[in-house]
Amino acid sequence: MCLSSRRVVIVEDEILIAEALRLRLERMGCEVVGTVDSGEEALNLVANTTPDLVLMDIRLAGPMDGITAGEHIHSRFGLPVVYLTANSDPETIERVISSQPYGYISKPIDDATLRSTLSIAFQKSELERTYRRRERHYLSMLAKLESAVFVLDAAGRVCFLNPAAMTLTGIEAGNPDNFLVHEVLSFVNEAGERLDPVGQCLTLRQEVILDHVWCQTRAGKRVHVQVDVIPIPEEPAAESGSDKLDVVLLLHALPLTSLQTGLPEFIRVCAYCRDIMERDASGQTVTVRFETYFRRMCNYQFTHGICPNCRSAFFKSKKPASSPGGADEA
To answer: 75, 137, 202, 249: most buried, per Cβ within 10 A?
Structure first.
């Protein structure tokens, strides 16, 4: 990869080494936008110069070492950091690795190692920027979808959900992975039978589509949806030889004008007893109670009470009649 016009900050507390690095980088076509000897100065310089990469010595002047400064620079500015050090003890190497560096060069430094390490660091940084740009694009698209979108891991834990899914479930953005999908959503068909589309997808390892399903949420909402569960396999794990599997769960709310819940266009009701009439398997007309019919069709449960009008009429009819003389009868 060409290093021409790449802007680099050097953080090195030894003046001679810093100057030698500057000359080497300029010969390679890089632009050195500044040289400092402490982590605090590095943060200020990066904020004011917006370089493409930071070449960071691990041992620096001042209270902040290079690894700490590099972690701050990467988290705040998203810049690649390549570390330099003469120390290759296990503790230092472990700290460098845990900071997820873009490169690590041991002193003394030769030109070939410096050039190849910087080239790899720039390439990795550009790939990550492309990924983040695409991720922002996809997230903005998901945010505009009316369908609820959930991403679940192989255990059924919620890893991501879009705004429509947040509204549906009542889960706020932040820590969605505290929830298992069966804790926030349940599914039943029109006959009231429980369904497990996510478990079915994980077992079969293939897409599952269920149409006209009732979705009950922990927030108390009940919606009629089409359910799509799409598996997303990862690369096989080298140590186990098995695939990990995430799934995307999509809930498409069905518009009221096109609901097909198994109910006929017109429900036949007896004009006298108010029971619902339907045909059995033999074609004979039978009647069922309102509660029984809708519990079977929609999985609703019913309780009974007395409405205010009926209560008033009932107690009015129970009042004792007054005698003609005005006194109540004994």
So the answer is: 249
